[in-house]
Each structure stands twice: as C-alpha cells, then as structure tokens.
Amino acid sequence: VSNFGIFVIESKNISGAIYGSPQDREWTVCLGCSKFRLYNPLRQNAAHIKALAAATLLPERYFHSLVFFWSDNCQFKTPMPENVRRAGLCSYIQGKRRYLLSNADVRNALLRIAAKRIPSTRENIDAHVANLRRRHPRTDLG
Fold it and tell me: Which pairs from 110-113 meet CB under 8 Å and 24+ separation?
C-alpha cells in the first residue's frame, strides 16, 4: 500500500513451460511429460482486487495487479502482459510514479485491510483451499 496505489501480488512457484493469455480461464503448464491446468492467475488476482476494493472502499483503478513467477525453472511460451513477470518485480513497482493515494488514504486502507484480515490458521487455509477446489475442480491451485 503506497501513495502510488495498492500493489496486489499473486506469487507462483511453478516450474515448466507456461501457456496462456489474459483472456483464458485456465493456463497450461507442461513439465517434462506432465501437463496440468492452472487457473489464470490474472483472474485470480482480479478477484483479490475486488475483495480489497470492497474492504478499503477504494475504486479498483487504485490497484495494480502483478503476477510473479519466482521459480527459476519456468518459461513463458506465449506472450504475457507486462504485469506477469519472472523477474523485475521491484522495477515494475518502482516504475509506477503517479500519485494515486494521499497519506490519509494509505493509512485508511491499511486500517481497513487489517480490520478485515482473516487469521492464517490451518483451519481457515484448509477451508479456503476446499472452497477453491469446489469452484475450480479441473485446475491445479499452484
């Protein structure tokens, strides 16, 4: 959360060749002889942004979606937008230089996010994963 907006980063530790486009519901990951589907992380992050916009009472235009694949063993086999990256996470963030939020907006956003935060207990994580598996049964949740 900064004066330059709220950066929502979906990180993935996935190895293999990655095929997909921003419009696809699922992306394909090929690793050796194995192939699996991955729910489009851009769509996943869009849902995160909707939830954060509701929690902070800020318009979605103040949020920056970023998907970061941090495995050394992944390759994009189709063109990806600039906010899907394997490197340059900090430079992407530092490249956003337009002020979007006042200091008061930043403080309020942090307070509202903290107030809505769900504790990271094993029970809550398991319930979240079970819900995702029900909604996206054919994909690997990465």
Answer: 110/1, 112/55, 112/56, 112/57, 113/1, 113/52, 113/55, 113/56
Q: Which two tokens stand for residue 136?
A: 């996206």
Torsion sign over Cα 99, 100, 105, 107: negative
Cα 103 to Cα 50, 98, 111, 131: the distances in Å are 22, 14, 12, 36
Q: How confident is the model at residue 139 (pLDDT cuts 50, 70, 90)?
A: low
CB 45 within 8 A of CB 67: yes
What pTM was estimated for this model as a whole? 0.87
Q: Are 46 and 103 in contact (CB under 8 A)?
A: no
